[in-house]
Amino acid sequence: MFFDDEPHGVFLLIDNKSFYASCEAVARGLNPLKVPLVVLSEAENTNGGLILATSPEAKHLFHLKANVSRKRDLPNDPRLWVVPPRMNLYIQRNLQINQIFHQFTTEKEVWPYSIDESILDMTHTWRLFGNSVREVARLIQKTVRQKLGLYTTVGIGDNPVQAKLALDL
Questions:
Q1: CB-CB contact of 33 with 55 (8 Å)
Q2: Average confidence score pLDDT of the chain
Q3: Same domain, 164 and 93
Q4: Does one domain contain both 93 and 163?
Q5: Cα radius of gyration rounded to whole Å, the chain
Q6: Residues 125, 110: contact at Cβ < 8 Å?
Q7: Alpha carbons 112 and 133: distance in angstroms, whole number
Q8: Do 148 and 160 reside in the same domain of the chain?
Q9: What is the mean pLDDT of residues 158-169?
Q10: Mind telling me the catalytic residues?
Q11: Using CA atoms, how far apart are residues 68 and 158, in angstroms rounded to an integer?
């Protein structure tokens, strides 16, 4: 594969960990990494109920997977939080997260990739915030965590494709 046509520089692909479940946990004053929580849609087209998001703890304890597990897969366990989806909340958090990213690079250099992922072109600004790109990535993670209570993961690359691969691998 040739990447000559890809932009070159310093790119971060930032993903919000278990985004819907994390937003729901934080909204309830819970730690998104420690609470077993699932976001369950019971819309008519979900064949009895579809789990849209699963917290890391729910994955660990109950072996549930988002967009694969169904309502019928849920254990009858009092520790498990089952909540309905609130898309307006997730959109609002996405906008807030991207506003935080604008503190680190220009608005035109923040490219929302999906509701829970954004690409940041940090080529011209990362040196303003730290001594290494990794240090700046950690600062961004810390800022999102402190302001919104959400955890993020970051892929770093010379272009957006490499950043996405770094994140996923």
A1: yes
A2: 93
A3: yes
A4: yes
A5: 17
A6: no
A7: 20
A8: yes
A9: 92
A10: 117
A11: 33
